[in-house]
Amino acid sequence: MKSRAFVIGHPIAHSRSPLIHGYWLERYGLEGSYERVDVPPDDLPAFLAGMGASGFRGGNVTIPHKEATLRLVAEATQRARRLGSVNTLWLEDGRLLGDTTDGEGFLASVAAAVGPDWQAGMRNAVVLGAGGAARAIVGAMLDLGLPRITVANRTEARARDLAGLSPDRIGVVPWGALPDALASADLLVNTTQAGMKGQPPLAVDLAPLPGRAIVADIVYVPLETELLASARARGLRALDGLGMLLHQAVPGFERWFGVRPEVTPELRALVEADIRKAS
What we know:
Layout: E1 3-9, H1 17-27, E2 32-38, H2 44-49, E3 56-61, H3 66-72, E4 75-76, H4 78-83, E5 88-92, E6 95-99, H5 102-114, E7 124-128, H6 132-144, E8 148-152, H7 156-163, E9 170-173, H8 178-182, E10 187-190, E11 214-217, H9 226-233, E12 237-239, H10 242-248, H11 250-257, H12 265-278
Parallel strand pairs: 1-2, 1-3, 4-6, 7-8, 7-10, 8-9, 10-11, 11-12
Antiparallel strand pairs: 3-5, 5-6
Helix pairs in contact: 5-6, 5-10
């Protein structure tokens, strides 16, 4: 029987996930489908309860459902519970299970762009923002063993809540103290929407960053944000958010369709072209 999977959100028309999974289905010659489904928040419990009856094997969850879905699954992985959200669902023996792969996708994207040993000698990562994406990325970096993570967020209370994941390894600095924090940063990650198409630019001076630093932006529309352009102009290693989007999709595809897919240059070029066409 043909496997069906989905991505749910509200709105959902902008999602590139069907393009990604459709590419993999074709590349590996698999019978299956991956569909966008617009699910308003009030309809989420009913949709998830009827998933199996609708013929779906599993799917992805995006804004605004990641936190609510955690409360609706029969069982979630330890990291999903710790980070407070779910972005990947699958059915097992009739039970709805959930995980979060955003942090895993971020780490894989850095390794692909910079090299598999990118974290060697890394002492301090600075993360801008304290929302769901920040939690996933910080959690993944903690699991990787990064000794120190510094969080800056315009609402300091949210940053302190995020620091609760590991108070001995996560520090919080006011937004105005960023220059001092950047002076010792090996990695800078923007998890905010600043710099995204239709949003204000991210006003951060990269001058204090050491020459060894990596700059990552999880925004992928546009592919080249002002932050990344500034980093490249300084000769710093920089990567956009498209890699995270591509790599976070890998575990779900493997669960639903039984093949672990590869993030290829051809796939990246396909999604890049779609982003540029829509911009």
